[in-house]
Design a protein that fits this description.
By secondary structure, the protein is α/β, with parallel strands linked by helices. It has helices spanning 9-23, 61-69, 86-94, 136-145, 168-181, and strands at residues 72-78, 117-123, 149-155. The structure holds flavin mononucleotide.
Length: 184
């Protein structure tokens, strides 16, 4: 959860996703990044030298551990100044520790197993045509990390915390992605 606003639009969609995924039998672990204390990547580079994990041990450590075990990763964020929130970007930078030391040339670049799924829940105040391609810029990096299947759930024109809950189309889009992932 990359929004600091509990009960807001990103949170509503994330909870909606998790409730429906649980109905499909998914085991779910949630983290609210705004309640955690951590730094972004400091480029110590130990994860490419003598360690196979991030040298920083902080509140993000259990999050990274959980991600390494997860088949499906859901990242929920509002658009803040044309991008994901700062707290989510700091966390994403720490995903650098999932890359193997020779990742620039290695065929398999990730320490994580392949075949994983990424869901990005994106909410924004501006209209639909803005920030359509926000996740595209992250797509290749997540692909290299093993999240080859990527899904986008977007809600636009939402500013008040209850706006998403009042729009059945956004909730339905979320349902459809859950059902696609867990249909088997
Ligand atoms: C600091 C800040 C920056 C924002 N920047 C943008 C922006 O650049 N584009 C946009 O469409 N909405 C922007 N918004 C609006 C939020 O994306 C929108 O209200 C969203 O629904 C908030 O998500 P939440 O309810 O999960 O907190 C911004 C809101 C805040 C608080």
């Amino acid at each position: 959860m990359g929004s600091p606003r509990r009960g807001g639009n990103s949170d509503t969609l994330a909870q909606h996703f998790c409730e429906r995924a649980a109905q499909h039998g998914a085991e779910i672990e949630q983290f609210a990044l705004s309640e955690l204390s951590y730094n972004g990547c400091q480029n110590h580079f130990r994860c490419k030298q003598d360690l196979s994990h991030c040298v920083q041990q902080d509140d993000l450590t259990p999050v990274l551990d959980a991600i390494s075990q997860a088949q499906v990763l859901v990242l929920a964020s509002p658009v803040y100044f044309t991008n994901v929130t700062g707290i989510l970007k700091l966390a994403i930078d720490r995903f650098f520790s999932f890359f193997v030391p020779d990742y620039p040339t290695a065929e398999k670049k990730s320490r994580l197993s392949s075949g994983r799924q990424l869901v990005f829940i994106q909410t924004q105040g501006e209209p639909e045509e803005r920030y359509r391609d926000l996740m595209d810029s992250y797509s290749a990096s997540f692909n290299y990390l093993g999240f080859e299947q990527q899904h986008l759930v977007r809600a636009w024109g939402v500013r008040e915390p209850s706006d998403v809950a009042a729009n059945v189309d956004f909730l339905k889009e979320c349902d459809d992605v859950v059902d696609e992932i867990y249909r088997d």
